[in-house]
Design brief:
Pfam family, one (chains A, B): GerE
Number of domains of chain A: 2
Keywords (chains A, B): DNA-binding, Phosphoprotein, Transcription, Transcription regulation
Strand content of chain A: 5-15%
Helix content of chain A: 40-55%
Oligomer: homodimer
Domain HTH luxR-type (chains A, B): 150-215
Number of strands of chain A: 6
Domain Response regulatory (chains A, B): 6-122
Organism (chains A, B): Plantactinospora alkalitolerans
Chain lengths: 230, 230
DNA sequence: CCGGGCGTACCCCCGGAGGGGTAGCCGGAC
DNA sequence: GTCCGGCTACCCCTCCGGGGGTACGCCCGG
């Protein structure tokens, strides 16, 4: 048997922390190494106690569980974070998952399942409460993106043309694209003319839109070029 | 006790269908009402047999399970669809979820869990195999979207300016925006000037990018205006 | 009552974008 | 060998987009 899993409990409610500690101490494969009463404490305690798994509440003073999760996963910490909350709020769920949480459980989860979940996330697995799973799936179903039909349109472009289109969608002017690809601006213009003709676009703006709609570029991939220089 | 759950088995492999039928028939709360050997059959059988739950394979001739799922959920069918496949392919997973599947299980799932899963999806819950959950969560963590920081930038715009920005991001030319808002084009230009000054953007292309990056508009929301008219 | 934000509207000016057409060069297909 | 697709590169010309500045009515808040 390996060493017990090191767990950090984060919750602003004293009773809840005590309860969790009691539940977890019944399992000899788990060792509660420390507690924190808010997100800010959690961040420092993680650094000090180096837990394997963090049980994280969401609603807390000072720094909420989502922000704390973001902090912790942003640092090189190996700690896996398991959100444990009463509220099945959509913003919480997606906020936590984007922040890098490995799981999202509701506090109504039964003790045995909580223990199983801690082991699961420690192993690298992820898990969600069933109703949370449902919410996540519904969101995915609602926002279908990488439009396969649009992708088909893009396939009529040559590799070079796709490359130009992508740079257009990054906000570059023709001269900048030319510099990037090390060709003349006139060449870029020629490519662009063909692109717009093939895709039946009116101007580069519609080209940018198509690039986003087809998933050629995606939100979050490209920092908006801050070039206020005219 | 209510009537047994009506289940349709869809798999191109005869043995697999037989096996599933055997497993499910051991449970008296489940009634296998029909089978289909490919996606096209599945679509028609769903119409005829009106199952509560469809166990759907992915890799099949004629019409694959993803496409069949899309067909079925697109119609008014109440059938809930549970994907059951050997392959943990990312495209399969996200394709299926976008197509409206209620769950995604691997064929290595144990019989009891499969039966439990069928009941769960029939109840309206959703569920994923643990490793699939992991994949889904990782994808969410990788693509954080409705950028809250970007949203903050947008808040410096007046309502009217946001409205103009959105139309710009839909690919409209200034004159078209003017017509849409029933104002003069010169007014649109004035708004646009202020927008670009406030957000430190160089041209409307960067405005479109910012609109997508901040979630003011999202892929899939706006059909690309097909206006090849010059 | 008066300042200021907002929405509206114009002016002049010019540079980049986009339409149309032409052309050389290269590599692979036939 | 020949032909075609892809990449490169120009020319000319038009016009929309964007910079800078001004202005006026409206409504809200101090």
């Amino acid at each position: 048997m390996t060493a017990p899993l090191r767990v950090l409990i984060v919750d602003d409610d004293d009773l809840m922390r005590a309860g969790l500690r009691a539940v977890l101490s019944s399992d000899e494969t788990i060792q509660v190494v420390d507690e924190a009463a808010d997100g800010a404490q959690a961040v420092t305690r993680v650094r000090e106690a180096r837990p394997d798994v963090v049980l994280m509440d969401v609603r807390m003073p000072r720094l909420d569980g989502i922000a704390a999760t973001r902090e912790i996963t942003a640092t090189a910490s190996q700690a896996r974070i398991l959100i444990l909350t009463t509220f099945e709020d959509e913003d919480y769920i997606f906020g936590a998952l984007h922040a890098g949480a490995s799981g999202f459980l509701l506090k109504r989860t039964r003790p045995e399942q909580l223990i199983a979940a801690i082991h699961a996330v420690a192993e690298g697995d992820s898990l969600l409460s069933p109703s949370v799973t449902r919410t996540v799936i519904e969101r995915m179903a609602r926002s279908p993106q990488p439009d396969p039909a649009g992708g088909r349109r893009l396939r009529s472009l040559t590799p070079r043309e796709r490359e130009v289109l992508e740079l257009v969608a990054r906000g570059l002017a023709n001269a900048e694209i030319a510099a990037t690809l090390v060709v003349e601006e006139s060449t870029v213009k020629t490519h662009l003319k063909r692109i717009m003709a093939k895709l039946e676009l009116r101007d580069r703006v519609q080209a940018v839109i198509l690039a986003y709609e087809t998933g050629l570029v995606r939100p979050g991939e490209a920092p908006v070029r801050g070039v206020p220089r005219p």
